Amino acid sequence: MWRFGWNPGRTLRGADLEAVLVSAAYGTDPLLRAGCEAVREGDVEAGATLLVETREDPEARAYRAEALGRAAVDRPDEVAALVEEGVDPVDTMLWLGHTLLARAMALPSGGTGTGQADRKAFEAALHEARVPLEEAARANPEDAAPWSALQTVAMGLGDREERERAWTEASARAPHLFPAHMTRVRALAPSRGGSAEEMFAAAGAAADTAPEGSPLPAVLALAHAEYLRGEQRRLVSEGNSAYITSMALGRLHGEAVRELFELAQGWASAAAPHVRAVQAHHLFGWAFHRAGEQDLARWHLGMVGRYVCDVPWSFFGSARTEAALAMAELGVDPRDAEQGG
Fold first, then answer.
1. Is 273 found in the same domain as 196?
2. Is this prediction's pTM over 0.90?
3. In degrees to the nearest 10, what's the CA dihedral of 132, 135, 140, 142?
């Protein structure tokens, strides 16, 4: 771990690297990406087999359901029809719920400049996604994946009671499920009615109790990103310029960086293969880049290969652009970087 390979004489441009990066929305596993591509082209049966294989692995199940949901975003009727074709409804309802959730999350969600009609459409889409997810939870009571997704539904609707219930159910079934903790941290952000104290406490608890080799400690970096995004929005809404806002936010520093370093070092020294490894590298990479810890940021972003994750880069602009600019500044070329996870 912590091997810092870098050629300081190499000049990279963000615009060039941006064209090289590939979205991790359909996963980073070649088999899953091939399945998602088949689904996008109309072969929805190809996706069903990928979920059957995951019933004993909560991380893989949630990960594949998310990716397949995005792949089938324009084909919800075809996914729903799989039940009539004999595909097990346990998998089909989970997939359909994620498909409808992906459709909902692509809509304007009620932020600045979003009208009442858009907000109503967003809420209606979330309610639609809730139905198959709840059915999936009933059909397979041991499955944490539908409850993890129901957290996102409740968060989008601003339903605190349902959000807490979904979190309780998901964590009871899979205490260290990465996406459930990601959503938990985001749901407790001050911008969503929570507080910085609650959010950082949840992230810290997840990091402290994570199994050895798990990328889960990266959720603490997510908490920092959520906090800075909220502060950025507040400063902009108060009429501050982009320059003043940037100067006011500054960098991560002090105890926050030391804590992230210890967590990242602990993970890197014992990392086990994990479907969320690339996501964790992006979170730590963003945090260390923000902190001015170039060697650490360079190492983590050098582990993601060509894959870019929306979170946390999209909090501050286009994910692809922000990640590419950071990589160029650090001298990380995704064309020859070591593949992560």
1. yes
2. yes
3. 90
